[in-house]
Amino acid sequence: MKLAAIDIGSNAARLQISKVLDNEGVLTFKKVEYVRFPLRLGMDVFTTGSISAEGEVRLYKMLHSFKLLIELHECKDYLICATSAMREASNASDIVTRIEGQLDMKIHIIEGAKEAELINNVVVQSLDTDTNYLHVDVGGGSSELNLYVNRQKVASRSFKIGSVRLLEGKEQKSDWEKMQRWIQDHIGPKQAGIRAIGTGGNINKLFNLAKTRVTESSMGIEELERIQKYVSSYSLEDRINKLQLNPDRADVIVPASEIYLSAMRWSGATEILVPDLGLKDGIIQYVYDRYQHRKRKKDTDPIL
Fold first, then answer.
1. Which long-range contacts (CB under 8 A, 24 or more apart) does 58-63 make?
2. Could you tell me the domains of the chain?
3. What pLDDT is recorded for position 170?
4. 0.85 exceeded by the pTM?
């Protein structure tokens, strides 16, 4: 059985198609198709407050192509989730209605809390029980922070600080202050030895550039600072040509790194775990749970 997830972010949109494997009751989701497209809705929304006509056409064409791939793979079910940019776009509701009428594809605009919950459902599987974690998920328009103690989420909050928003200079100083205060209010002596965990495309790319790693899936704050300085030393053109970064990654990777580093400094974390998981993986898990729910209940009512 194959399932699909579409994540429409502020910087890029992603389609992931995964095959469900059942090994003696142990479920795994094997990625069989992955497409990332630099839609960049946030460039419109964080500047003008709405999605342009050109942006809507690009969104339509992209979803049409994704629909064809989903049909070719004969997926049993799929879900489309849109985050920060579409949450804030004044014309998002009209666009959702038009696209549903044209393509018969429903876009679910989810709040930051639901976004964090979906990511939490897959990230928690990577955590140790004897370590406290500050999870930092950085998107184009917002960042979701979660605090885990003994693999249980004890606090969560979404902030309007994201890579595209920072690139456009649309963040507010007060949002940085809110994030710092939230971290310092929630991480005290009882969370000593906090470890950061980072999700999002930018931290994955930063991790790939690391020369020194603490473990196979983590690096220290000093290494992250070194990578930030290294990438910053290149012009945008050289980041694309010499570092071989995609254009829509090359301009946002440094602002994104500042969010991860700020969260680590404020929390006292000296190491960050990078499990290469994100919203798309959480959506796949959700779609599987929904599919099983519908089979048991023999209905088609969504549970989102």
1. 59/8, 59/13, 59/95, 59/99, 60/99, 60/102, 60/103, 62/13, 62/37, 63/6, 63/99, 63/103, 63/105, 63/107
2. 2-109+280-297 (3.30.420.40), 128-273 (3.30.420.150)
3. 85
4. yes
